[in-house]
Amino acid sequence: MSEISSNASAAGSGATDVRDPNHMPPIGQAIPLGIQHVLAMFAGNITVPLIIANAAGLAGADTVFLIQMSMLVAGLATLLQTIGIGPIGSRLPIMQGTSFAFLPVLIPVAKAAGGLAALPVIFAATLVGGIFHFLIGTVIGRFRGILPPLVTGLVVMTIGLALIPVGVEYMGGGKFAKFVTKDFGAWYHLFLGCLVIVSILAAKFLTKGIASASAILIGLVIGYLVAIPMGMVNADKITNAAWFSIPEPLKYGFDFTSDLAMTAIIGMCLMAIVSAIETVGDISGITKGGAGREPTAKEISGGTMADGLGTAIGAVFGSMPNTSYSQNVGLISFTGVMSRHVVTIGAIFLILAAFFPKIGAIVAAMPNAVLGGAAVVMFGMIAGAGLKLLSDVDMDRRNMVIIALSLGVGLGLKAEPGVVAALPVWATMLLTSGLFPAAFLAIFLNLILPKHLEEI
Q1: Which residues, listed in sequence order, are joined to residue 98 by a DSSP beta bridge?
Q2: What pLDDT, on a 0 to 100 scale, did the predictor assign at position 214?
Q3: Please, are residues 304 and 152 in contact by the beta-carbon 8 Å criterion?
Q4: CA-based radius of gyration for the chain
Q5: Which residues neighbour 267 within 8 Å (Cβ) at sequence distance 6 or greater?
Q6: CA–CA separation, 75 vs 346, rounded Å?
Q7: Residue among 146, 52, 143 nearest 106 (CA)
Q8: DSSP letters along 9-68, please?
Q9: Whole-model pTM?
């Protein structure tokens, strides 16, 4: 891999090849590079279904199924991006996975419905939201000008900052079911969470290559192994899971009619706008970091449509909303390899893994504190990715005002949701998500404020 990286920065035909999305490295290099993309996103992809399963208080078998479907749909959605169908797909090395951005909507729905009743509501909202996201992709190229790095950076940063408390709560033992665990905050939960964080940092900065790129996965494995002799891993979930299973579409059905369903659908459609903005940021990051150019309108439109279609397909199979993964954008910048075929290989590995429920059962048995340690790092990295996008922004008085108001209102309402408790349920859910008000204000203020404010 180091040879590929050096070639990427060298002059000549080699540099042109690896920075071409259509270039196919030798299969001996392409396979490990594809697996590396899976390792970089695997922990994040399974985190969302784990969080929703805990929030709804689901049984082990249902949790395993959600994890299984998250792998299948991530692989299928990635193929939509890398291979494409007609105008759908960016034909860029974009890895798809379950989206953290929708958690502020999904968690309250899971808590409110509880148990299996939550899933038909979630998947109905995901289907409608995915279709709406797809339609956004057909026109988003015309509105590219209202999504500068100031807006996309704020959106990505807000996602990370709004979700960091989720990781911290998991480190304490978890409090997303209908009750707080009796030993919430116990020393052994905090010990495991901190062990995972330290292990991730050690793997990231004391190793190189695939080990460094898969630091999150290494941290999870170390925390998991240490939790076993501590008696914190439920082996029954693993023992009872099947070795092989064919995915079952529409297993939980759809609920489009309940009051909660309508609230969830509105929330998912509005969050789809925010997710589309995030996707534009990721596409820009790939073309800039991997090829040193701006993305084309066709790439932005096709990538956004693939995002939406992947989410809609996920609803049918039983997966949470999908989106492009920012950590894989960073991986492309690190390796210098722009080949979409490498990411296609990673997608095939994900699809194959989905047919073996034992893999999902092993993940489902993971203690909350172990997941929490990794989540704190991952959510923090998302916030850092937003900060990196903002680093290209001129921090003048105008832009500082936009940043201050967007973050202040967005995160403030999330921290104190009682301020808007008197509003309708759907409005309260959106305003306290952290993400929607921040994104709306960033776009609105960027459009109406003068480009150059006079010094006072």
Answers
A1: 322
A2: 67
A3: no
A4: 21
A5: 105, 109, 125, 426, 429, 430, 433
A6: 8
A7: 52
A8: HSSSHHHHHHTSTT----HHHHHHHHHHHHHHHHHHHHHHHHHHHHHHT--HHHHHHHHH
A9: 0.73
Report angle CA 180, 55, 117 to the nearest 5 degrees.
125
Distance CA 399, CA 147 (A): 14
Q: Compare 401 and 381 and report the one with higher pLDDT.
A: 401
CA distance 325 to 40: 9
Contact present, 299 and 81 (Cβ < 8 Å)? no
In the numeric block, which tokens belong to residue 330? Answer: 């960073």
Reported confidence tier of residue 433, pLDDT bands at 50, 70, 90: confident
- Token couple for 383: 């916030």
- State which amino acid sits at residue 276: A
Sequence-distant (6+) residues with CB within 8 A of 387 are 153, 157
Encoded tokens for 58: 């689901």
Nearest Cα neighbor of 318 from 281, 360, 270, 288 is 360
The conformation of residue 88, written as its DSSP 8-state character, comes to B
- Give the whole-angstrom CA distance, residue 35 versus residue 347: 9
Place of tokens 């023992």: 239
Chain-centroid distance of CA 308 in Å reads 14
Dist CA 187 CA 437 (whole Å): 36
Question: Residue 31: what are its φ and ψ, rounded to 5°?
Answer: -65, -50
- Phi-psi sector, 13: left (phi>0), alpha (psi -120 to 50), beta: alpha
Provide the pLDDT confidence category of residue 335 given band limits of 50, 70 and 90: low
* Token representation of residue 281: 């940021």
Is pLDDT above 90 for 408? yes
Instruction: Select from 69, 101, 155 the least CA-distant residue to 307.
Output: 101
Q: How far apart are CA 446 and CA 440, in angstroms?
A: 10
How many residues in total does the chain contain? Answer: 456
Strand partners, 96: 324
